[in-house]
Specification:
Elements lengths: L8 E4 L3 H4 L9 H10 L8 E4 L6 H4 L5 H8 L4 H19 L5 E4 L21 H11 L6 E5 L6 H7 L5 E8 L12 E6 L5 H18 L3 E6 L16 H13 L4 E5 L5 H16 L1
Parallel strand pairs: 1-2, 1-3, 3-8, 4-5, 4-7, 5-6, 7-8
Length: 284
């Protein structure tokens, strides 16, 4: 019997992300996924689409307080947030077990602004913090790294994982309206100017990735916010080529064990192109 090889790239996707996701973020999801189909990326050898289930309430309770979870349950977006988080958890398990090389997770609600007992900025459940805490708690990973390239500071992730010395948290964020804090040996803040372009961005990206490589994580999370594009609502002025360059630089240092998690960005066409370029690199 011929053995089916493990997937090279997992694409985590659920129709609910676009049907019941948080507006305006939900409008970008289906067009970006359809673009991957149209470009033939999903037909490449080793690419597999994973339809996730919701993260169990018990896992959410490891990082969020009962009051926080109760608030999210009344928001109207609990189902979408739990399903988005479930996708990140499932992808993480497949990566650390060696069942897949890399993953790109679509979401219906983002996560990096969700703290232990608060949420804002389209973020309800901190998907990466839930997945990371689960891996560490269960002894499935010893060290983890996060590089957040969303131009808005990942304050929720820092609130939850900042004290955790087994997690390296690198934030490339806009110095304008910064919410940075808690910097230290495993918490690295990189404030960038409002109009940061591709070359300056990549200089700091490469330094951050080198730092992550030195940390020797079992898994690297990428908080992938493309609101840094010059035609989106973030503070940077990147072109779509910057996202391809980011993916190439990441693959050079981490050929496997990288979990991209979609974050900010509302531009439909920008999302199609930015996500498409990353998936092209990961699946090539």
């Amino acid at each position: 019997m011929q053995q089916v090889p493990d997937p090279k790239l997992l694409i985590v996707y659920h129709d609910l992300f676009s049907e019941r996701g948080y507006p305006p973020l939900k409008d970008r999801v289906e067009p970006a996924f359809r673009h991957l189909k149209e470009m033939g990326y999903l037909d490449r050898q080793g690419v597999e689409v994973l339809k996730p289930g919701p993260a169990p309430l018990e896992l959410l309770g490891r990082v969020h307080t009962p009051l926080h979870i109760a608030d999210v349950e009344t928001s109207g977006f609990f189902e979408t947030a739990a399903l988005s988080t479930g996708g990140v958890v499932e992808a993480s398990l497949k990566l650390v077990s060696g069942e897949a090389e890399n993953a790109f997770c679509f979401v219906g609600a983002a996560g990096h602004h969700a703290s232990r007992e608060g949420y804002w900025g389209f973020c309800f459940i901190n998907d990466v913090a839930v997945a990371a805490t689960y891996l560490l708690d269960e002894g499935l990973a010893g060290r983890l790294a996060i590089i957040d390239i969303d131009p808005h500071f990942g304050d929720g992730t820092r609130d939850i994982l900042g004290p955790e010395r087994r997690v390296l948290h690198i934030n490339l964020h806009s110095s304008y309206g910064s919410r940075g804090g808690g910097a230290g040996a495993t918490n690295i803040d990189v404030p960038l100017e409002f109009d940061t372009g591709d070359d300056v961005f990549m200089t700091h990206v490469e330094a951050g990735l080198d730092r992550a490589l030195e940390f020797e994580p079992d898994l690297l999370y990428v908080i992938f916010g493309y609101d840094s594009h010059r035609e989106d609502y973030g503070a940077f002025r990147l072109s779509v080529e910057a996202y391809r360059r980011f993916a190439v630089a990441t693959c050079e240092r981490f050929p496997s064990g990288v979990c991209y998690v979609l974050s900010g960005g509302s531009g439909v066409e920008v999302g199609r192109e930015a996500i498409g370029r990353v998936v092209d690199v990961l699946s090539g």
